[in-house]
Inverse folding.
């Protein structure tokens, strides 16, 4: 049966969070109580004004095909938002709406990377980056994010990885899984290495609003970088709209036309009523998002303090996103083994750091997109379980 499938399917990876979620849910079906810290999904409801906008659009008959790159009004709103927040001129023709953030990763790499081209990506990092690079025949080049450097890119090391075959650099700030953040001076130093070279930058800015310290700065804002930057953004994290599946890319017009053609050949379009919900999200009140971020910060402080109080565990305080990446090397077990142990022994579902790349070994990723009460219970369970090792 194996010969019935294309060879490229062997190159396609997965997202371990969903595999661990399935294991946790199976234990729940058996009657075990599980605290979920594995999935990157805010536990807040979608703000009412956004849901109502989607309902109004449904009731108004927005159930037909829409233009492949998206309706004009939402694209205008996104263009205006990016123009204002990044300080760059953006036209609606440079915006493509897609079904979640991942398609921008997939389409951008598919549209720009040829077999043998090198793509530099953060490691540990979101696993779909490497998966997509391999799938199109590119060569993934990891840039290590090390704890001693606060999980940030080492500019000197990055420069050593850039070659004549480098086609793309992937950035993610605030970052998954470490919660690290690239300050303006870091971004400008990275841009200096890219300017004058034929290298695309895929800037994953999906966690832009979930930032507790510092100020968001996009590499697209650096003079000369807009034309070669692909901004990946969306609504899942900032507006608790994970199930709505709405994301977007901002890129130069020529690439936007290529990406639109890929949309035509795959999903056709994003449903109109979902686009109108997104329009309300980006143009309506931002109070729900601000309150959500305040709650996340409270949870972050609690989980970092709790983890650092556990013997053998150390954890940096992340400035953004809603993940912590504690060091568990003292337990002399692989990160995957320890994650499995905590699931079955403590009833806490987390992810081994190696799920985010080889440089994630020795760490766990815990999502604090859960209630403060559950987080405190989880810390106590983890402490009790680790004490038995």
């Amino acid at each position: 049966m194996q010969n019935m499938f294309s060879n490229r399917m062997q190159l396609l990876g997965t997202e371990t969070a969903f595999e661990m979620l399935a294991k946790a849910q199976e234990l729940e079906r058996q009657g075990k109580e599980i605290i979920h810290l594995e999935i990157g999904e805010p536990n807040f409801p979608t703000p009412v004004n956004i849901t109502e906008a989607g309902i109004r659009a449904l009731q108004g008959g927005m159930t037909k095909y829409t233009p492949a790159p998206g309706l004009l009004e939402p694209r205008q709103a996104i263009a205006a938002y990016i123009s204002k927040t990044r300080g760059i001129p953006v036209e609606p023709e440079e915006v493509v709406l897609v079904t979640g953030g991942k398609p921008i990763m997939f389409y951008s790499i598919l549209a720009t990377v040829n077999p043998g081209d090198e793509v530099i990506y953060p490691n540990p990092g979101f696993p779909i980056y490497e998966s997509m690079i391999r799938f199109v025949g590119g060569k993934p080049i990891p840039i290590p994010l090390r704890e001693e450097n606060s999980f940030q890119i080492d500019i000197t090391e990055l420069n050593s990885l850039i070659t004549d075959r480098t086609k793309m650099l992937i950035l993610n700030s605030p970052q998954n899984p470490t919660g690290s953040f690239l300050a303006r001076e870091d971004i400008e130093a990275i841009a200096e290495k890219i300017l004058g070279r034929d290298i695309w930058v895929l800037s994953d800015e999906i966690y832009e609003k979930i930032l507790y310290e510092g100020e968001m700065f996009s590499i697209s804002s650096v003079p000369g970088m807009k034309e070669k930057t692909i901004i990946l953004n969306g609504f899942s994290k900032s507006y608790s709209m994970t199930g709505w599946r709405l994301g977007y890319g901002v890129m130069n017009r020529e690439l936007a036309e290529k990406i639109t053609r890929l949309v035509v050949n795959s999903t056709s379009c994003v449903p109109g009523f979902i686009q109108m919900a997104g329009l309300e999200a980006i143009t309506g009140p931002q109070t729900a998002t601000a309150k959500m971020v305040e709650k996340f910060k409270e949870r972050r402080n609690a989980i970092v303090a709790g983890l650092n109080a556990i013997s053998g565990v150390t954890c940096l305080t992340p400035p953004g996103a809603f993940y912590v990446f504690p060091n568990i090397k003292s337990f002399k077990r692989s990160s995957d083994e320890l994650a499995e142990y905590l699931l079955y022994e403590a009833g806490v579902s987390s992810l081994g750091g190696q799920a985010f790349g080889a440089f994630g070994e020795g760490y766990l990723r815990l999502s604090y997109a859960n209630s403060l009460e559950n987080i405190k219970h989880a810390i106590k369970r983890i402490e009790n379980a680790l004490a038995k090792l």
Notes: The first strand starts at residue 35 and ends at 36. The chain has two domains: 2-45+287-386, 48-283. The chain has a mean pLDDT of 97. The domain at 48-283 is CATH 3.40.640.10 (Aspartate Aminotransferase; domain 2).
